[in-house]
Amino acid sequence: MADNLHVYDKPPLGANADWTIPQNWEAFDAHEHEMWDRLFARQSEMLPGRAADAFLRGLDVLKLSKPGIPDYQELNQRLMAATGWQVVAVPGLVPDDVFFDHLANRRFPAGNFIRQPQQLDYLQEPDIFHDVFGHVPMLADPVFADYMVAYGKGGLRSLGFSALDHLARLYWYTVEFGLIQQSDGLRIYGAGIVSSYAESIFALDDDSPNRIAFDLLRVMRTRYRIDDFQQNYFVIQSLEALLKSTAGTDFAPLYHRLETMPDIAIADILEDDAMLHHGTQAYAASKA
Ligand code: PHE
Ligand code: FE
To answer: 246: Cβ below 6 Å to ligand 1?
Structure first.
């Protein structure tokens, strides 16, 4: 791991045992608040008609359009009232068990720095804009809120199996890069997409990536890339359907079956896939 990434193996000095730190909102300077405003303006302008209804409702209910980096004391009052969730600040990426434990207890850990002007479009680790603008609006939706709790509890349970890669893929292809089929069209709900200007367009409009109907086992077998636009997006029918197919399923037998099933290479398509769009993969080929 590059040492400029904020990854530690125990809570750094000043952090609590659960890795949380005070947000210290007063310490953000005018440039940092301006960076939030600039990113917020750019995303919120293009998201109507692209982001899921639940996401847009969340922006509204949480009053995220208020200028500047959100003060968690204020944000958490609204979020708590909506679903019992809260945002907590952490110094960087936290260990898996700590992450799962926060989710299981309705706490979403957010990085406590905001990107620099030269990182407007790409950064290696989640900043406040990704974590708060990308993730928190969906946590104001009662069904998605329950999905994230169930995921955290499932994560804690999975530590007794060797299932982390499979569970990470589920998170990746839903929480980070999920698409949803609304009656009025395909929409984005994944935080990695909604917080990215370019991928918000690419994920919905570009011919390159596959768009495949969500299938739990399929998703848990599918590798993903962390360094560029996705080559696959998985499409859920509704948040209720996502919750039902995950929280309503005992993963232990799935983990067992997955042990003998090969991973699926990033852009491979299977006979059983329900394709919404068979991607050309032209974008990925142009970068190879
Ligand atoms: N139901 C899963 C289990 O038995 C846990 C889970 C729920 C995982 C929701 C992901 C999302 O472990
Ligand atoms: Fe994220």
So the answer is: yes
